[in-house]
Design brief:
single chain, 275 residues, mainly beta, Immunoglobulin-like, 2 domains, five-stranded antiparallel beta sheet, four-stranded antiparallel beta sheet, 17 strands, 11% helix
Length: 275
């Protein structure tokens, strides 16, 4: 097969007519691409680099992020919305972009700053409302921590306390007023059942304001269900039952009930870790 040589318009070398490419141009293109890739691999620039992220052995969520030297540490901003955690920082652009920056239709300050955001998904077992951030200026490290969610329980026992029982759920706020035969009664949950710190010890506790009631009995209905029977005053036999399902972290066997002069009932159960 006869072939003829023609000039390559890209490298000004000769190549055979009918060939797919010019060998000289192809060799030049391969050499150029090698140079680019090697330069790219030696460029270790970053804005935010995640060093570690996960749940520690003490059940705390922890995320460590290394911030680039160009980052203004004082610009670090943490935003938590639901299970989404956003880290916002500002980075000063390097001089190599000066020609490009000057062409931007914005003021000088905007031309020198680039905003960067990192979005992290917080596990559902983590209390996103308790996220804490620590900025280590010396090592240019941002450390985010948050505890796991402690189980919160409050529900009615369905075993043998159904008559006149009040159903309460976590974070419910009740202010129940009743008038029967001209006699007024009231139940007000002033402190929702939750984990509280009292005298440097943790308790599962709740506080109930009452009017027209007195505490009849307070005892464990089952191994982890505390039942409080409230007897209406005025000689009537109406009874209100309040049942708390004590979480496994608390020692239900040593639960205490205190009744104050203003008819406030304070229930608290110490956590097992306190002993």
């Amino acid at each position: 097969m006869s072939t003829t040589n023609e000039r390559c318009t890209k490298c000004h070398g000769d190549h055979e007519t009918g060939s797919i490419y010019c060998p000289k141009f192809n060799e030049k293109r391969i050499a150029d691409s090698t140079k680019v890739s090697s330069a790219k691999s030696s460029d270790n620039s970053y804005t935010v680099q995640i060093v570690s992220i996960g749940i520690r052995p003490d059940n705390f969520y922890e995320a460590k992020m290394l911030l680039a030297p160009e980052i203004d540490m004082s610009s670090t901003k943490i935003t938590v919305k639901g299970n989404n955690l956003r880290v916002s920082v500002q980075r000063h652009l390097s001089k190599e972009f000066s020609d490009m920056i000057q062409k931007l239709p914005c003021n000088d300050l905007t031309k020198q700053i680039l905003k960067h955001r990192e979005n992290l998904l917080i596990p559902e077992s983590i209390d996103s409302d308790e996220v804490r951030a620590v900025v280590d200026n010396k090592h240019r490290m941002l450390i985010l921590t948050a505890p796991t969610i402690k189980p919160r329980y409050l529900q009615i026992c369905s075993l043998h306390c159904l008559d006149n029982a009040i159903l309460l759920r976590p974070y419910d706020y009740i202010d129940l007023k009743m008038i029967s035969s001209g006699f007024k009664t009231r139940l007000k949950l002033s402190q929702i059942p939750d984990f509280y710190k009292i005298n440097n010890k943790e308790y599962f506790a709740a506080e109930i304001k009452t009017e027209g009631f007195k505490v009849s009995t307070a005892a464990l209905a089952t191994e982890n269900v505390l039942n409080i029977k409230l007897q209406e005053l005025g000689g009537r036999r109406h009874v209100r039952n309040i049942n708390f399902l004590i979480p496994t972290e608390a020692n239900a066997k040593i639960a205490s009930i205190e009744v104050f002069d203003d008819n406030t009932i304070f229930m608290r159960v110490p956590l097992i870790c306190n002993f």
